[in-house]
Amino acid sequence: MGLVYADIILINAIDLEMAHRNIIGEDEIKQMSINMMVDSGAYMMAINQTIQGQLQLPFIEKRKNILADGSIKEYEVVGPIIVKFSNRTSTCSAVVLPGNSEPLLGAIPMEEMDVQIHPRRQELVVNPAHPYYAVLSLR
What we know:
By secondary structure, the chain is α+β, with helices and mostly antiparallel strands. It has helices spanning 13-20, 49-55, 107-113, and strands at residues 4-12, 31-38, 45-48, 59-66, 72-85, 88-97, 104-105, 115-118, 123-126.
């Protein structure tokens, strides 16, 4: 199977809450659309410093991460960030990778949105068993 990419909308969740409380206007909500690599082998979502600079997500903590080559690096974690794909949403935190590193949609937001990688079409799809809404497993 090759690499899978999906068009994802990222929204600063704090801005969205402030807009709901009429503290800022709807036009002030920081959000962006990006084509993101779907990586079911990555646990968390990863954004880069450029995306972080545009969304201005609050710092949560620093966390050590094991990279694909087995090395361990410490990166900042930011959030909350709202992730949208098709008719699905997830609210999660994200690891901030250096510079313009490729952003990754990891397993946590994928599970929450109830989406899957379609191996033949090599694309992200909503779970065909639940096409109209996400179903989460609590077991």
